[in-house]
TrEMBL record:
GO terms for molecular function: dynein heavy chain binding; dynein light chain binding. Part of the dynein complex of respiratory cilia. This is Dynein axonemal intermediate chain 1. One of its GO terms (biological process) is outer dynein arm assembly. It is found in: Cytoplasm, Cytoskeleton, Cilium axoneme.
Length: 736
């Protein structure tokens, strides 16, 4: 038993007893003798009195010197081990510690933990094929891998899987045998310690000296704790992704040469030749261009190197400009594409116009919009002619082409000395534009060519008009495949122009005259008053048939085959006819508008109008919708746009909406887009406004259950015929 610490545990099982025995062995025989002189212990009488009576006689028999020595040894041993909390702590100072002052010790040092790897290399370089040199990379991989293990899976039915399963099956049989052997050894050691009253150290030595019996069994294989097959769990391994990428090397060329005096001299001579050629080109420019440049105060300088640099980035700059504008006007583009006015469901067959983009150019602010025309091929591109309707304020003119992809700036800009009054774009060649000027000339612009002057232009020698040209129209090529167009002017001539061998050749088709106004001149000469043509339009199917509107308010039906007389005359309006247009579906119907505030719809076989609409202001222009035979739009000088649908309301417009804000501003022209549900409207301040038609303004027939919607020109013709039959007189109705 352990007598030093007054406990009843065996000496071999008490930790403090073990420490005491070690100290005794250090001091040799004295400690051993003291231990041998100890008498056997007295058995305890009761559980409460086990401690006191059993120990007191033992303490009295031990010499004082030996007990004092034991106490010192025990205190040192205890200080080294179990009761460290009872002793005062002593600070150990390393030899290389810094000597800091009180201020340095009190200073607070803030450290921020980051996810950056301090051992990651910062000087990695990669080869740049573009610059042909090694360049340091900007990013550093901060990932640190602490453990990596490649595992493998085996099929249970495979040979290796069966072997492992057989090995695993032996483990339950081997485990009980090993545990029993260990338990037997422990019990033997305990029995020896209890039978013989020996110190704990001798028991330990005996236990250490005894070797466990050798077994003939095989050593067990330690199972792999990371084997997924045995642990019956498997995780999903994420695919490895690399942030670095390798590009194909860009094409390279070596620009190296030895420069000598002769090469330098040749380069200077070549530059001088370029300058001389540019001066010759300047001399060959027409006088018109020089006058324009003088008016603008521009100096004629030709630096081909600079122009070359600009042309190289023209296409890229245009794309970037469109991207910037698309971001700037993103809300308008979204409305153009997707917005449908939900309020139309609650309106009684009425609609609205939603303003979208507004196209304007600073140099065309004081010029009125005199003509508008959509491009037949590129549906987002349209041309605008600028001039002036006031004959007292005639100055210059401009031809601008805008696209809805870039509302802030025109795609093409052409300027002229005289105001442009009309224009038209060729159906088969969408890059050819014909314009009519206020001074009576006509010209053809080619958008493929970069210069700002027209490719072909009439002159006084080639038969130009003596009054403003109010309208021009492309026609089909003649028998020799020469380009052909018609023009009408206030001088009473309708002229056919043909482009023959890069020259404009004219031929008068009809000369207008006012009937019943023949005057007698000197010597009995008969003087006939000339009629003033303002507008005309060609039939969609019959090429030779066309209509002419005049300042006197009459409309003439004419043919190219007859130059001396009219096929029919309509007393249409009391003032000048501003526009006349055939219906795109019905071959007998046309529309006209006038400054006498009215819009009239006609059947060319009947002398009286079918419909008359009074808009309470002078009507500047009228246009049929391309998607319906009964819808048309008209604009008036009071700044309003009117949209009619005869199939819904035969008496009033289903939409009358102000488009321009200022009272002094007047609307001049209107055109429907051939595909999109939008219209463009021009005013006399040089602005062009794009508006979207609400669903009620482009209503299509509703689907009925079990019936398919019939679409096509025949349906539109029948729809308009049904309306015309309601207003035709019984004598004029066609026989069925």
């Amino acid at each position: 038993r352990c007598h030093r610490y007054q406990c009843q545990l065996p000496a071999a099982g008490c930790e403090r007893g073990k420490e005491l025995e070690r100290s005794r062995r250090r001091f040799g025989a004295r400690g051993t003798a003291g231990a041998a002189a100890m008498p056997p212990k007295v058995p305890a009488r009761s559980p409460q009195s086990q401690i006191g009576p059993a120990v007191k006689p033992v303490q009295s028999r031990i010499p004082k010197s030996i007990s004092r020595k034991r106490d010192e040894d025990a205190s040192t041993e205890v200080g080294e081990g179990a009761d460290e909390w009872t002793l005062s702590k002593t600070l150990l100072k390393p030899p290389d510690q810094l000597e800091l002052t009180e201020a340095e010790l009190k200073e607070e040092v803030t450290r921020i933990l980051t996810a950056n790897n301090p051992h990651a290399p910062q000087n990695i370089v990669r080869y740049s094929f573009k610059e042909r040199a090694y360049k340091p990379i900007s990013f550093v991989d901060q990932l640190a891998i602490h453990f990596s293990l490649d595992g493998n899976l085996l099929l249970r039915d495979s040979d290796e899987g069966r072997r492992q399963s057989a090995r695993i099956g032996l483990e339950p049989d081997l485990a009980p045998v090993a545990s029993t052997v260990i338990e037997v050894e422990e019990t033997e050691v305990k029995e020896e310690g209890s039978k013989e009253d020996i110190p704990a150290a001798s028991a330990e030595e005996a236990a250490e000296g005894e070797e466990p019996p050798s077994h003939s069994m095989k050593e067990q294989k330690l199972t792999n704790q990371f084997n997924f097959c045995e642990r019956a769990s498997q995780t999903f391994n994420n695919p490895v992704r690399e942030r670095a990428c390798q590009m194909e090397p860009p094409p390279r060329a070596t620009f190296s040469a030895t420069a000598n005096q002769w090469e330098i001299y040749d380069a200077y001579v070549e530059e001088l030749h370029k300058l001389e050629k540019s001066k010759e080109k300047e001399k060959q420019k027409p006088l018109v261009a020089k006058k324009e440049d003088k008016l603008r105060g521009r100096k004629l300088t030709s630096l081909e190197s600079q122009s070359d640099d600009v042309t190289k980035v023209t296409k890229a700059a245009k794309i970037v400009e469109r991207m910037v504008n698309q971001n700037t006007f993103d809300d308008i583009a979204q409305d153009f594409k997707y917005f449908e006015d939900p309020a139309d469901e609650y309106r009684d067959q009425e609609g609205t116009l939603l303003p979208l983009w507004k196209f304007q150019y600073d140099k065309a602010k004081r010029l009125a919009v005199t003509a508008i025309c959509w491009n037949p091929k590129y549906k987002d591109l349209f041309a605008v002619g600028h001039g002036s309707y006031d004959f007292m304020k005639q100055s210059r003119g401009m031809l601008l082409l805008y696209t809805m992809k870039n509302p802030s700036f025109p795609e093409y800009i052409f300027s002229s000395e005289s105001g442009i009054m009309c224009l038209d774009i060729h159906n088969d060649h969408p890059y050819l534009l014909v314009v009519g000027y206020y001074d009576g000339n006509v010209a053809i612009y080619n958008l493929k060519k970069s210069h700002s002057q027209p490719g072909y232009k009439s002159s006084a020698k080639s038969g130009k008009h003596t009054d403003p040209v109010w309208q021009v129209k492309w026609q089909k090529d003649d028998l020799d495949n020469n380009l052909n167009f018609f023009s009408i002017s206030s001088d009473g001539r309708i002229v056919s122009w043909t482009l023959v061998k890069n020259e404009l050749v004219h031929s008068d088709v009809i000369r207008l005259s006012v009937e019943g106004t023949t005057l007698e001149g000197p010597e009995g000469l008969q003087l006939q008053t000339i009629g003033c043509g303002t507008s005309f339009d060609f039939h969609k199917k019959i090429d030779s048939l066309f209509l002419i509107g005049t300042e006197e308010g009459k409309i003439y039906k004419c043919s190219k085959s007859y130059s001396s007389q009219f096929l029919d005359t309509f007393d249409a309006h009391h003032m000048a006819v501003d526009a006349v247009s055939w219906n795109p579906y019905h071959m007998k119907v046309f529309i006209s508008c006038s400054s006498d505030w009215t819009v009239k719809i006609w059947d060319h076989t009947i002398k009286t109008p079918m419909f008359i609409f009074d808009l309470n202001s002078a009507v500047g222009d009228v246009a049929w919708a391309p998607y319906s035979s009964t819808i048309f739009a008209a604009v008036t000088t009071d700044g309003k746009a009117h949209v009619f649908d005869l199939s819904i309301n035969k008496y009033e417009a289903i939409c009358s909406q102000p488009v321009v804000a200022k009272k002094k501003n007047k609307i001049t022209h209107v055109q429907f887009n051939p595909i999109y549900p939008i219209i463009i409207i021009g005013d006399d301040r040089g602005h062009v406004t794009c508006l979207k038609l609400s669903p009620n303004l482009r209503k299509m027939p509703k689907e009925k259950k079990g019936q398919e919607i019939q679409k096509g020109p025949e349906v539109e013709i029948a729809k308009l015929d049904k309306l015309l039959n309601l207003v035709r007189e019984p004598a004029n109705k066609p026989a069925k």
